[in-house]
């Protein structure tokens, strides 16, 4: 994997702001030729710097307005038990993010559902009926004051930057 130079960083920054830019428009914004920009973006995708290109939808407008942040503690924390739990939550589309964490609970999940009844059904499917789940602690968002997807590229340093 190659390191990022200043042009790579400018490309990544612009794509974080607006991934729908045409290659021509992106090239203009980062002060590069269109062919150079196209090659760079392809390399950034191939090398895994760009993991996924998506549209971020409005959960409220689509009727999925309940966000739950859920802490999960397992009875048994051996690797095979953690992997089994991750496989279980990966199959559930309402679970948007799953993190192994330390210290504290074993996992933190970000869940997006329509309403409390939907959350209750999901919690029963994933947590209550799962023998290895010891504790579930749920928090429900009443207001989202910030939501960002951008990584601050200027603050990063290290072998991949």
TrEMBL record:
<keyword id="KW-0805">Transcription regulation</keyword>
<dbReference type="Pfam" id="PF13412">
    <property type="entry name" value="HTH_24"/>
</dbReference>
<feature type="domain" description="HTH asnC-type">
    <location>
        <begin position="4"/>
        <end position="67"/>
    </location>
</feature>
<dbReference type="InterPro" id="IPR019888">
    <property type="entry name" value="Tscrpt_reg_AsnC-like"/>
</dbReference>
<protein>
    <submittedName>
        <fullName>Lrp/AsnC family transcriptional regulator</fullName>
    </submittedName>
</protein>
<dbReference type="InterPro" id="IPR036388">
    <property type="entry name" value="WH-like_DNA-bd_sf"/>
</dbReference>
<dbReference type="InterPro" id="IPR011991">
    <property type="entry name" value="ArsR-like_HTH"/>
</dbReference>
<keyword id="KW-0804">Transcription</keyword>
<dbReference type="InterPro" id="IPR011008">
    <property type="entry name" value="Dimeric_a/b-barrel"/>
</dbReference>
<dbReference type="Pfam" id="PF01037">
    <property type="entry name" value="AsnC_trans_reg"/>
</dbReference>
<dbReference type="InterPro" id="IPR036390">
    <property type="entry name" value="WH_DNA-bd_sf"/>
</dbReference>
<keyword id="KW-0238">DNA-binding</keyword>
<dbReference type="InterPro" id="IPR019887">
    <property type="entry name" value="Tscrpt_reg_AsnC/Lrp_C"/>
</dbReference>
<dbReference type="InterPro" id="IPR000485">
    <property type="entry name" value="AsnC-type_HTH_dom"/>
</dbReference>
């Amino acid at each position: 994997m190659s390191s990022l130079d200043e042009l790579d960083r400018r490309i990544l920054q612009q794509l974080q702001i607006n991934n729908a830019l045409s290659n021509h428009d992106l090239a203009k914004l980062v002060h590069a030729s269109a062919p150079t920009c196209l090659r760079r973006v392809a390399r950034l995708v191939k090398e895994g710097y760009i993991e996924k290109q998506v549209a971020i939808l409005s959960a409220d407008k689509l009727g999925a307005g309940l966000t739950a942040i859920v802490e999960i503690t397992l009875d048994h924390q051996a690797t095979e038990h953690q992997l089994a739990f991750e496989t279980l939550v990966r199959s559930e589309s309402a679970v948007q993010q799953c993190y192994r964490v330390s210290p504290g609970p074993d996992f933190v999940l970000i869940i997006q559902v329509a309403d409390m009844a939907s959350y209750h059904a999901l919690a029963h499917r994933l947590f209550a009926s799962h023998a290895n789940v010891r504790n579930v602690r749920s928090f429900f968002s009443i207001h989202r004051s910030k939501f960002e997807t951008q990584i601050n590229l200027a603050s990063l340093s290290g072998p991949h930057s």
